[in-house]
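Progress note, sequence design subtask.
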């Protein structure tokens, strides 16, 4: 096949490109320019948006012996990922920009351009596996569970999966680094990126404060104790908080029982942040909106349950046994119908925030995902 290898400048994408060559594909390396001014996003070898990363990707392509180009996706990235990140926080929710980048950029804008140019697929260094199933290609967890990235790929549909290659899904990360060194790739020891690529120094709250500090209704509000209703303090904006947060509340005094308080609710219109005890974070039911299916869609009114059915609620979070129900609702103002999802957690989860993604699994297979809109607390024992 004729494929493009998305090369971030890290070790994983470099080895994935090299493996695609070994598999007999005609490979062209591409690096995504996600900012017209890379210094405005991140400096240093921690992200995927810098001049250093572009140079690392180019050097890796030279070693592998493949053509290399830079594709400017900065406008699309800013609109679909950065603006979405800001808008979601402004609404009192917690987004996952990496998941949105996969949905809107790497496997939509990039794939569409690649197919238009005559390529057959996009190769990435994600840790996930593709398998043939009875209804077509299926997305599965990686062999290395510690590096598994199927969660952030749970937004891909069956068409996108048919035009994707994940060569690292069957390999532990330690073996990938050794392979990179053996191939003479200078990125073999380059640290992994763990922060949001467009937030300088990993300071999410500071970045959001700069971007949203004066945007109503996010400028200031009360921090309120759930049990007593007492105002415990003030804050500069709801964007600085997420459900389950403990650190950085700056309340000045402990709870009456001496235990720490956690963020339980965020109300962006009034600016009220409600705090309370850890046990009030436990969630038993999740409501989510507009599912995306990684294969055949679950029909309206269907119910997915069984010993292998689980939901993952964070990129590196635990699996929770669950029962998933799908239904459709009529939108207001005659805008048609859309699907919704209810997830009953057999194992309650803590600190689940609207805006996050719920990714549904059946064993190792990714069924699909949806965006969390609301949660119901577990009953206190």
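Output:
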């Amino acid at each position: 096949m004729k494929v493009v290898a998305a090369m971030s400048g890290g070790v994983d994408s470099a080895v994935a490109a090299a493996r695609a060559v070994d598999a007999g594909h005609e490979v062209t390396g591409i690096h995504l320019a996600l900012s017209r001014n890379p210094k405005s996003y991140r400096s240093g070898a921690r992200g995927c948006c810098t001049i250093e990363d572009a140079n690392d990707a180019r050097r890796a392509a030279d070693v592998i012996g493949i053509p290399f180009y830079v594709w400017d996706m900065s406008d699309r990235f800013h609109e679909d990922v950065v603006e979405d990140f800001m808008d979601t926080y402004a609404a009192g929710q917690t987004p996952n920009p990496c998941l949105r980048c996969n949905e809107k950029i790497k496997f939509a804008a990039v794939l569409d351009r690649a197919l238009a140019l005559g390529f057959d697929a996009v190769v990435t260094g994600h840790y996930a596996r593709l398998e043939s199933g009875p209804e077509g290609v299926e997305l599965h967890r990686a062999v290395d569970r510690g590096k598994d990235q199927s969660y952030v790929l749970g937004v891909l549909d069956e068409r996108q999966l048919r035009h994707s290659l994940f060569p690292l899904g069957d390999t532990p990360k330690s073996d990938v680094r050794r392979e990179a060194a053996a191939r003479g790739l200078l990125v073999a020891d380059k640290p992994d990126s763990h922060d949001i690529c467009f937030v300088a120094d990993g300071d999410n709250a500071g970045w959001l404060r700069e971007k949203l500090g004066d945007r109503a209704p996010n400028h200031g509000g009360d921090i309120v104790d759930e049990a007593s209703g007492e105002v415990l303090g003030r804050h500069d904006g709801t964007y600085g908080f997420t459900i389950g947060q403990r650190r950085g509340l700056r309340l000045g005094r402990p709870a009456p029982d001496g235990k720490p308080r956690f963020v339980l609710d965020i109300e962006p219109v009034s600016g009220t942040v409600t705090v309370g005890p850890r046990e009030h974070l436990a969630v038993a039911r999740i409501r989510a909106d507009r599912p995306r299916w990684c294969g055949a869609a679950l029909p309206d009114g269907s119910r997915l349950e069984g010993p292998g059915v689980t939901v993952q609620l964070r990129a590196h979070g635990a699996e929770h046994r669950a029962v998933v129900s799908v239904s459709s609702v009529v939108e207001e103002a005659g805008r048609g119908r859309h699907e919704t999802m209810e997830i009953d957690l057999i194992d309650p989860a803590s600190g689940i925030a609207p805006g996050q993604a719920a990714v549904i699994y059946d064993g190792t297979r990714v069924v699909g995902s949806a965006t969390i809109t609301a949660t119901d607390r577990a009953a206190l024992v």
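The longest helix spans residues 97-116. Work on this subtask will continue into the next period as scheduled.
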